[in-house]
Amino acid sequence: MFDTFRSRLSLEGAVETVTAVRIGAGRSTSPVSADLPVVRDVANRPYIPGSSFKGVLRSYVESIMHSFTDDRHIVCNPVDEDGQCLKRSEMGDLRKARDAGRRKPEERENWTDQEFSKKILKKTCWVCQLFGSPWYASKLQIRDLHVQQDLWFDQYQQRDGVAIDRDTETSSDGKLYDYEVVPAGVLFDFHAIVDNAEEWQLGMLYVGLSAFEKGELTIGGGSSRGLGLIELSLESEDYIDKQHILQHLIDEEYQGEIADRKSWISAFQARVKQQLEGN
User: Fold this and answer.
1) Would the pLDDT of 29 be above 60?
2) How far from each other are the two terminal CA atoms of the chain, in whole angstroms?
């Protein structure tokens, strides 16, 4: 899938916390810190793991896809063995067929690494083709979102919490605790790269990102208590295709063409419409 360069979309921007955000680091053993601190980098500053952002984005895209189809080859349930687009048992059958084919000279050409990847891709759902699966590498990379240092002055906040007894539906005695949050108004750097994606896949990605741009999605824990709302602002959207790769390598100032998100979203809509009409 990545043996030949076909295209790269590079996105940069900032994520602002609209409300306080809490991405926990587990229970603290320090007597002077909050019982439940937030994750920190090596410089003791908060950050948003790229995997957390990507997970919320993927879940939102999956919810959109599930709204018009239950076909697991269009959108699967990656946490359910029976709902996966390519089950473990099916992958085992593919591997057995590959190994058997490679032992037969007349079938050897049909089981090259490239052909094997094509067979996997044919069984991989739309979402897994972009976000990845146990058998298929992700085309989307989202780096950890580090806080913008110029605007960060250790503005951590601590809030009180109480454990609830589920049987009595009241607070449990002696179960008070405090937890740490990153307050509203903090900015984090955002950087994502998409390699060798089809136009409709880029459109599907932008449909998901648009919810972050509108401030409609939350991240981290405590969303039911009003935590986790963030807003994405994209500042640069550079696209390089294979026709301009040499220019990109030779000219250090060349960043690529401006992303054509409108036509990519149209390509995604057309593919969805085609799928609906086909069913």
Assistant:
1) no
2) 29
pLDDT digits over 122-154, tens only? 999 999 999 999 999 999 999 999 999 888 888
Question: Residue 108: which H helix or E strand, with range?
Answer: none
Q: Which residues on neighbouring strands pair with residue 194, listed in sequence order?
A: 9, 140
Domain assignment present for residue 155? The answer is: yes
Q: Taken in order 185, 187, 49, 121, is the CA torsion positive or negative?
A: positive
**DSSP letter string over 216-257?**
--B-SS-GGGT--BEEEEEEEEEEEEGGGHHHHHH-TT---E
Q: Quote the domain boundaries for residue 141.
A: 7-86+124-278
Kindly write down the DSSP assignment for every residue of 52-66, as one continuous string.
HHHHHHHHHHHHHHH
- The 10s digit of each residue's pLDDT in 93-118 is 988 888 887 777 766 667 788 888 88
CA dist 49 → 61, 141, 147, 221 (Å) = 19, 12, 11, 13
**Is residue 68 assigned to a domain?**
yes
Give 180's contacts (C-beta < 8 A, 6+ positions apart).
Answer: 22, 33, 34, 36, 37, 38, 156, 157, 158, 159
Cα angle 174, 180, 181; round to 5: 140
In a domain, 1, yes or no: no
Whether residue 106 lies inside any domain: the answer is: no
Residue 201 C-beta-side C-alpha neighbours within 13 Å: 20
Q: What's the rounded Cα separation, in Å, for the pair 194 and 24?
A: 28
Cα(183)–Cα(162) distance, rounded to whole angstroms?
20
Q: What's the structural domain count of the chain?
A: 1
pLDDT for 31 equals 46
User: Is 164 strand, coil or helix?
Assistant: strand
Give the per-residue pLDDT at 109. 66
